[in-house]
Write the structure tokens for this entry.
Amino acid sequence: MYDVVIIGAGVSGSASARELSRYKLNVCVVEKEEDVCCGTSKANSAIVHAGFDAEAGSLMAKLNVEGSQMMEGLSKELDFHYKNNGSLVVCLHEEEKPNLQDLYDRGVKNGVKDLRIIDREELVALEPNISDEAVAALYAPTGGIVCPFGMNIAFAENAATNGVEFKFDTEVTGLEKKDGSWVIKTSQGDIETKYVVNAAGVYADKFHNMVSGKKLHITPRRGDYCLLDRSTEGFVTHTIFQLPSKFGKGVLVTPTVHGNTLIGPTAIDIENKEGTNTTQEGIDELINKAGTTVKGLPIRQVITSFAGLRAHEDGHEFYIGELEDAKGFIDCAGIESPGLSSAPAIGKMVAEIVKDLTNAEENPNFVGTRKGILDPKTLSNEERAELIKKDPAYGNIICRCEMITEGEIIDAIKRPLGAKSLDGVKRRTRAGMGRCQSGFCSPRTIEILARERGVDPAEITKAGGDSKIIVGINKDRI
Amino acid sequence: METRELICIGCPMGCPLKVEMENGEVVSVSGNTCKRGDVYARKEVTNPTRIVTSSVIVEGGSLAAVSVKTKEDIPKGKIFDIMKELKGVKVNAPVHIGDVILSNVAGTGVDIIATKNVL
Amino acid sequence: MLNYDIVIIGGGPAGLAAAVSAKRSGVESILVLERDKELGGILNQCIHNGFGLHTFKEELTGPEYAGRFIEQLLEEKIEYRLNTMVMDIAPNKVVTAMNREDGMFEIQAKAIILAMGCRERSRGALNIPGYRPAGIYSAGTAQRLVNMEGYMPGREVVILGSGDIGLIMARRMTLEGAKVKVVAELMPYSGGLKRNIVQCLDDYGIPLKLSHTVVDIEGKERVEAITIAEVGPDRRPIPGTEERYTCDTLLLSCGLIPENELSRSLEVEMSPVTSGPLVNECLETNVEGVFACGNVLHVHDLVDFVSEEASAAGKHAAEYVKNGAKHAETGAKDIPIVATEGARYTVPKTINPDRMDEKHTVRFRVGDVYKNCYVSVYLNDERVIHKKRPVVAPGEMEEVVLKKEELAAFSGLSQITVKIEEA
């Protein structure tokens, strides 16, 4: 019997797990995929919103601002990539300047610091490639960008190090109340627990509705993105939003923490909770819109396009708390944008709710810091030479585009909750994330994964399940 | 009279060739722009041949597989028979360019030889 | 810090030929840096035959062709390091490289030859919509898995792109036991050689659909189906023309991109058309003593031309080492070669009538298929070459030969123009 079972190893579930590991609680995270960070958390804008967007007084607004304020410190404690690059909401029409003021006022009410409305001159000084149409902007110096995989993985690894158990490839199929506790039916058998945290992303309504009479309804809202090569680094340095107007909502153009340029997302409401396919219309719309706020977008440098699903609840609010009609069941639902920005605060809030319910004592062995995978690029040539002497695997480049070494890949495989698949390695090290999109390194990464995990190369998948890369040997069917 | 249609492989032009045949003999070639088309068509309809290449597993070497080919052209109709004979073939390192891997493959009288050194 | 006269970045066909030629031109101190575990580059996975007709007057497979040059390199006792990645090249010609045994190390070179080759355009760069499951490979990745590691990447295959690698892989997958259902090509013509269309597709009854592209990829974990559609003259899919193929694999053969990240860090000036460096007739870039050859310079159709070009680069690099900047000193100016009206680019980009050899072959590609046309060369406004061609196509490199005598005799020569003229 666990004290707490968290459904979902996305960023909310993992943040909650990490915060819960501060207490003497027996915690387990169940995840239907083979790894953490496989749903909404892996495909989004990778933005830390300053917090002026959400409606004043909403939980969304509160947790956004809190999360954003925690992010920098947390990125140091848990060693993930975060950059406070500031954001700009660009106004393209003189007559819409009042909307900019509204946004400013809301931000101030939400507690966002240092907000300013800037004129075109200052805007051009900040972003030389801004559209010629731009007349003014709301400047939020506290806005930031983050590696969403890095943050999610850091939370999960730190939780695991502090004793949280993770069960992968474990899909929840049912929930039953039994003698004051819960029986969770899964694809891997029944799991008993006193408390359940529902951090199931686009599926959170499904589990909520299994136990509660007050229904939730989550619509997967698809967002298409295009990622541009690192050669575009510096095209923009701030995150650039378009001021929502009668002309539409626009899409953002932002640098990523690794020096790529990201454009997106579209917003298309769909039925299929697994519908992460991009469409021609989506990509066309995206490319058209991205050219509105900036000029000369180097769209030919696109290296990949992808789609993510936002877990949009009809009420457009975070639902976090114990259900009145299902005691011991704690929702962490409706976590759409600014969910990533809010994750640190969401984790803290969930942990506090559970702590209050359980009166759990603090875990004296809790270690709040974690070292990420060593990035040799941050070392001097001398330090790097020393590292290779100690471990020659750091002298062997596997991913040529991102210059990732065998040493980093082995680290990604061997550390707690290590990578099992090509995508697992990619999210942890960036091997395969570059301009050739793993064309060159995938056969080599398969070899390393097979060797380190002691399995046949044919067993290695792209992302778990049936996503096999190798299906047989030559001539086996002739 | 039998007519065969081919695309010339001599150059990017890709002339559509028409070959008139009687009792297995070429009567005429048309559609070609140059002499190469005529030569190609006559060979292709009477005795089409190809080089077959593949790879076979090497044991004890620095690489997993060694590339191989038929030492000479083989009749086009024998391609899959050759692939079947190559199925499951394993050789031991070292292998050198030109080493015979299989002799008289699929009864063609042609040997399969290695096209790479694997030491 | 190590010191070499010439450092060659890449041990594929270009690097090998450049090294051998530089050595034979009298430079002793040469180092070839190769990132893979053997010399030969991409030729090692090109196990089909058809290489070397120009160079060796016989048809060889890729590994055999590479083998001939590797043999020459060994005979010439040229030094090389394998599994070695070049991390940076500074403008003062200090090369920073790394491998397991030597760690990070620096080499001061007098001359550098860039021979890094090219990479394939990925699915992402093509913006193909749909899911992102396993089973989507660039043709070259699949080629490596099958030909060098003995693994089948799929059973039922759709191929997008009819460049030579795509065609070759259609035959390879078929021979090794897979079913290739269709090859789709966005353009109204194939980018591959006619011989490959006949011997890789027609021989095995594989349909080639010109003016078609992939409009959807199905399958959450592994590819389950691919939908292709016809495209109009604007290359956009025409609604209603969709055809769905159940399959587990999509191979992409949609173009090659010269791999010039190192050249950029070296501040080499690049051509937006070829994505390769701009070079003069010595194959020297704007950075003195830095030369480029092979697919890093422009994507070639035949490896024989890579070897020829690389030999020239090796020779010129050797002259540079022996004579220093003096090698470039001439009385005449560098004359720009302008590619226009059907000709997309030329290599070289400039030519010096004083410095050039008696004859110089200028290579270029055309932007479309032209039938019964003329390849023309103008010195200023005067047409000096007017060569009739039954057909030219983007898939094959074209050439014109410029004569020193003619250029030198032309007074006031300020521009050479290469163009395609309709009959």
In short: Residues 57 and 80 of chain B are 19 Å apart (CA to CA). The interface with chain C takes residues 6-14, 33, 50-55, 57, 62-65, 67-69, 76, 79-80, 83, 97, 115-117 of chain B (CB under 8 Å). The longest helix of chain B spans residues 35-46. Chain B has a mean pLDDT of 94.
